[in-house]
Amino acid sequence: MEPRARAGKNVGKMNFAHNELAQLLYGDGDVKAPLPETVRVLDEIVTDFIQGVSFEATRAAHHAGRQKVKFEDFEFAMRRNPRYMGKIQEVFEKKKEIEAARKNFNIDDQLVRETNAEEKQAKQASAKEGGAKGGSAGEGGSKGGSAAGGAARGAKRPRPTEEELDEGDDDLDAEADIGTATKKRG
């Protein structure tokens, strides 16, 4: 007699999705659309296997004085079958690798967010400083409508500070250095 009772609620019902079992069969060499009877039999076999292993693991945990089943209990239940044992160990090792990679990814992602936030704050601070400096420069009337304004346009522009430089300023500075500036941006 078997030491465990069969669960009556699972008799005649599918415990796994038809598509999952069909893909499992196809992956092992069956046709793409297996017979429904084949899928039903595989469902019973897989369900019976999982129940048996879980029962053995629960028995090992109970023998050790624990109510919760741990990984070691499944290892103990599979100790007689090295093939299954190796597969279980491989799955748990992969799980640990994925968790470690996910943790590293979250740390890296957090660092990137913090860096972006710091850069954004620095840009906002420099924009506030630039707005305070540039606000008083344009108060003196019209821009370039008079002869004095035209003379001011022909004069050399003061070099901007490093915080004010961006991509467009690089071209003007390079042309000014070699003396080939043909057109000035205003």
Describe the structure.
- There is one protein chain.
- The chain has 186 residues and is mainly alpha-helical.
- Among the domains are: 8-80, Histone, subunit A; 82-129.
- It has helices spanning 18-27, 36-63, 71-77, 82-134, 147-154, 167-178.
- Helix 1 (18-27) crosses helix 2 and helix 2 crosses helix 3.
- The longest helix is centred in the middle third of the chain and has 53 residues, at 82-134.
- It starts with 17 loop residues before the first helix and ends in an 8-residue tail after the last helix.
Quick structural overview:
With 186 residues, the protein is mostly helical.
CATH C-level category of the domain at 8-80: Mainly Alpha
Quaternary form? single chain
Looking at the structure, the CATH topology of the domain at 8-80 is Histone, subunit A
Strand share of the residues? under 5%
Helical amount among residues, as a percent range? 55-70%
- From the spread of the alpha carbons, the general shape counts as elongated
Low-confidence stretches: 135-152
Give the N-terminus to C-terminus distance in angstroms.
96 Å
Main β sheet profile: none
Helix and strand string, N-terminal first?
Answer: HHHHHH
CATH superfamily placement of the domain at 8-80: Histone, subunit A
Number of helices: 6
SS-based structural class?
mainly alpha
